[in-house]
Amino acid sequence: MKNRDPRANWSSQLAFVLAGSASAIGLGNLWRFPYLAAQYGGGIFLITYLALVVTFGFSLMVAEIAIGRRTGLSGLAAFKALDRRFGFIGWLVTAIPVIILPYYCVIGGWVARYFVAYGLALAVPGAMADPAGDTFFLGFISHPSLPLQYGIFFVALTFLVVVLGVKRGIESANKIMMPLLLVSALALIGFTLTRPGALEGVVFYLKPDFAKFSLKTVLGAMGQMFYSLSLAMGIMITYGSYMRREDRIEQSVRRIEAFDTVVSLLAGLLVIPAVFVFSNGSADAVKSGPSLMFLTLPKVFADMPGTNVVGFVFFTLVFFAALTSSISLMETIVASIQDRLRLDRFHACLAAFAITALLSAPSALGYGLWEHVKLFRGMPFLDFFDFISNSVLMPLAAFATCIFVGWIAGPKLVLDEASKPTPFRHRRLFVAMIRYIAPILLLAILVSSILHALGVVVI
What we know:
The chain has 459 residues and is mostly helical. It has helices spanning 13-24, 27-31, 33-39, 43-71, 75-82, 87-123, 134-141, 146-162, 166-192, 198-206, 215-228, 235-241, 249-278, 290-302, 307-341, 345-365, 381-408, 411-418, 427-453. α4 packs parallel to α11 (215-228), α4 crosses α19 and α8 (146-162) packs antiparallel against α16. The longest helix is centred in the first third of the chain and has 37 residues, at 87-123.
């Protein structure tokens, strides 16, 4: 099958690896990974996570990229092109970024607000309310219009990169943002580790606590790995459709895994020692989600010398991490629109921008004007969309993909594609994972996530 748009190709294998890594590295690395590592025994969680990445994550990512390159199509059209009976899987994987991107851009708008606040505090001391105070964040998200304005600003910024195309837009942006992200992270880690008591936090983070190993550790690591690597969202299928035939899928996947895992480890090395010092050694202070990013860490920075500089550098890092992920989500939607409606890139990007901006309104206003509206089990809009996409649809989409590749189309479809231009070395691992192990693990993630949402304790 020919690529649907011969001009839409990565310029090199390195460009593909950077794009895949940029997609994988996002807010989940920064506000969820440290929390899970702190909760589930530090080093033992890291070992479990790494083992799942190089087996479970590897197999799913190889399958998605191979499907994309073989068909030259987005997730929406790729499954139908391989077998018309299973085109519904394409609709399932396409629905996920359509749901995720709007609320993700709302959170990106929150990050932009802090980026601006710390930047102005550096330029004009005392010009803005203290970003370290709880009232700053709570006042912002409950404002009748500011969250929506910042959210649409973030959507627009994402649009400006994506509309430029694969090479001029996504590749060029990644070449700038990824090095800056790493430099910012390393600079903050170096500074944080000089704080008194920080090394105790490092020991807590890296030392395995085998007493905390349980089924919950495995499920937590699986869920994080699944979300962190951008699986089951159509992203890797779309990015794979832009991959050149001469580039090696297996090697690229290993590099993306390594890049994403290193950033996750660095995030833990930044967050856990900092909060550990601030809380006098309490692991319970390492929270998950927005409370860590927008409430806990600004308070930690306020106790450090050069608080505004530290805050500005940190939210620069977070801003780039959020933007690289939103770019991949919008690109996936754009590719699907092009495949379905045969629009050119500009008009497909306009459609994606309009859809995302419109759907972002409920999440942006869900803590302010629309705070009285609650959905499943009292969830605000943003929490509900996050639950449906990450805890329900993504495991379902990945499960369907495994069944399709493992039992319908057959593993040979992926193995043949992944063996170009060099032999695929881990054939047995791939077949075992995609046919037997991964489907079971995905069902475990799905069941545990739903039970957790229902308030049922998972042992």
